[in-house]
Amino acid sequence: MSLLFLSFGFGLITASVLALAAVGLSLQFGVTNYINFAYGEFLTIGAYLAWTLNHWLHVNVWLSMVIATLLTGVFGVVTNQFLLRPFSKKGKPLLFLLIVTFGLSLFLSNLVLAIWGPDFVNLDVPRQQPFSVGPMLFTANQLAIIAIAVVVMLALHLLLTRTEIGKAMRAMSDSVDLAQVSGIDTDRITSFTWLVSGCLAGLAGIVLAINLTSFQPAFGGEFLFVIFAAVILGGVGSPYGAILGALVIGLATEMSGVFLDSAYKNDVAFALLVLMLLLRPQGLIRMAGKAA
Amino acid sequence: MGPIAYYLATLVVYFFIFAILTWGLNIQFGSAGILNFTYITFFAIGAYFTGVAMMARPTTDSNMRYILGLNWPFIPSLLLGALAAGLLGLLVGLVALRRLRSDYLAIVTVSVGAIVYDFVNVNTSAFNGGDGIAGVPYPFNDQLNLDPNTYIFFYVGLTGFVMLVLGVVAFRLYKSPLGRTLRAIREDSDVAAAFGKDTYRFRMIAMVIGCLYAGIAGGLLIGFISALNPGGWTAGETFIIWAALLVGGRGNNWGALLGAFLVPVLFVEATRFLPEIPGHPVLIAAIRNMIVGGLLIGVLWFRPEGILPERKARFPFVGSTQPRKDAQLDS
User: Fold this and answer.
1) Does pLDDT of B140 surpass 90?
2) What are the pLDDT digits (tens) for A44-53?
3) Contact A110/B287, CB-based, under 8 Å?
4) Do residues B106 and A97 touch, judged by C-beta distance below 8 A?
5) Which residues of B148-161 are buried (b: 16+ CB within 10 A; e: fewer)?
6) Are strands A136-138 and A131-133 parallel, antiparallel or unpaired?
7) How far off is chain B from A279, nearest CA to CA, in Å?
8) B110–A225: do the CB atoms touch at under 8 Å?
């Protein structure tokens, strides 16, 4: 029983990391209507930027994380501006954009490999003893990860419901054409979406790196299909669905460790993904026009 | 028999194997528009099953662990490998081909690739984990008893024969009613469905045939190099086949053949001779993969139809007394 509570705690941490990543992917998918297969590499880039600022430029580790998060957001904007937007303006089929992001993922993962090398590195956050919160065990870092996720999710909720730009994002997600005829500058909103999506990816990469304690160039890409599972489970294009999906996947993968060899925890995420696609492909929270 | 001749024969075998792979991907993507982002996984499954079917049952003091160990001859082993790859393709298709957008299939293939890769690595009793299987017997050499320098030319003939057969099948498939239906579905699946075509079934057929091609290519490879481990079928390898197809010309079997020569054989082999950078052992491989990724994007931007574009079908107007030669039915 105590093991179950313990793994529930780990599940909350994984869910927090996953929620940051999944919401970023889902927001961008909703607005631009194509999946970014290089998203895993965005996570990797976020973590390596934070590491570089800290180790090569001797910026304070926490400040490094903030700057790296923003830089990854800028990277998302640049990627859209100079690669993906030109492709989508060319009016090529959707398949092309998917292959472009797929090619980009190979390019970026190997760029990281070429710059930083294949070895494991770790962010210099203080190592702490875990302490118990009720029946669960957390380190202060892990509690910080959960707190960051909760604060960011609340901020996103306010952005999407209370601000002009957030409402415009939701409108574009429903229908780009209708958003355009009602006077929304779709190019500007798309750029802003890539900024938010990139920031979330960078932040997710950083907290994933903290949670794993060490990382190497492939770590973001390896996490990608778990993010996919959360996004599809929640309903593609719906940020609230992505949070829900992250919670389910995070808890399910960690708590499966009680019953299964923990080497198989990714398979649990995969099984949920397959089950969802067979039973309810539109996801828990349905967005019109995104699944079929 | 000089080392140059031996090396060239090796390249020819690789070219034949990559030609089969690129044709298979062409049937999936070029004809049916299926985005299989883990094509190399089907190749690996084919190779593993061919390998463990040919190998003898592992002894207790053996340092390798693997399933089956049937001691079968090459032909049935190859068929088993192809079948295993096709079956995996069928399972993926069952989940993702039914009434979902094409992105979902791509997501499922990426996830399947990650899961199979994980499984083979973690579950060492299937295909000996990360160390991989080794010592697969050379096909037919128990009867031929050739020395390696002569055997390689036999193998050029063997892969050449299989490649020729699969090539004829690929070309005929393209022209067949099945090929036409697949292209119609690729261009507009709603229209094809309105004409009474079961788009799910047809796309599934293309998915499975493409995976069978990948499985056969895998079986031929493991017969040649007699070993395989997970390092030999990472995501990077999938990109190379994709780049071959897009550079050569998707939807055109001659283009796929040309691409199989240009990207996996010419380009990848050429980079093999670049010097290692001291202290950075992965740099050359990383740069090579960056170029492949860039190539994929660059081709789609500058020449999306590839070097040899797909030829659009031309139809003279039916019923007109003077058939117009220039009439064509573009998508």
Assistant:
1) no
2) 999 999 999 9
3) yes
4) no
5) eeebbbebbebbee
6) antiparallel
7) 10
8) yes
Tokens of A150: 């909760």
Q: Which residues of chain B approach chain A closer than 8 Å at the C-beta?
A: 33, 35, 37, 95-96, 99-104, 106-108, 110-112, 114-115, 118-119, 122, 235-236, 239, 242, 246, 280-283, 285-287, 289-290, 292-297, 300-301, 304
Mean pLDDT of B71-95: 93
- The answer, yes or no, to whether residue A130 has pLDDT greater than 70, is yes
Give the residue from B313, B308, B305 showing the smallest Cα distance to B331.
B313
- CA dist., res. B283 & res. A114, Å (int): 5
Cα(A208)–Cα(A42) distance, integer angstroms:
12
In a domain, residue A275? The reply is: yes
Model pTM? 0.89
Which residue in B115, B242, B289 is closest to A266 by CB distance? B115
Task: Report the number of distinct structural domains present in chain A.
Answer: 1
Domain membership flag for residue A217: yes
Asked whether the predicted pLDDT for residue B131 surpasses 90, the reply is: no
Is A292 within the bounds of a domain? no
For residue B264, pLDDT over 70 is answered with yes
Task: Tell me how far CA of residue B55 lies from CA of A124, A144, B50, B75, B137, in angstroms.
Answer: 49, 53, 9, 13, 7
Place of tokens 């430029």: A57
Tell me which amino acid residue B163 is: M
pLDDT band for position B208 (cuts 50, 70, 90)? very high
Indicate whether A288 belongs to any domain.
no
CATH of the domain at A271: 1.10.3470
Better-scored residue on pLDDT, A206 or A173: A206
* CB within 8 Å: B107 and A105: no
Q: CA–CA separation, B289 vs B268, rounded Å?
A: 10
Contacts of A37 in chain B (CB under 8 A): 37, 106, 110
Nearest Cα to Cα of residue B28 among B221, B211, B278, B240? B211
Residues of A in contact with B245 (CB under 8 A): none
Distances B171 to A114, A249, B6, B72, B93 between C-alpha atoms, Å: 41, 45, 31, 31, 24
Across the strands, what pairs with B127? B66
Token representation of residue A275 = 């089950």
Domain hosting A151: range is 2-279
B122 contacts in chain A (CB < 8 Å): 263-264
Distance to chain B for A292, nearest Cα, Å = 5
B108:A95 CB<8 A: no
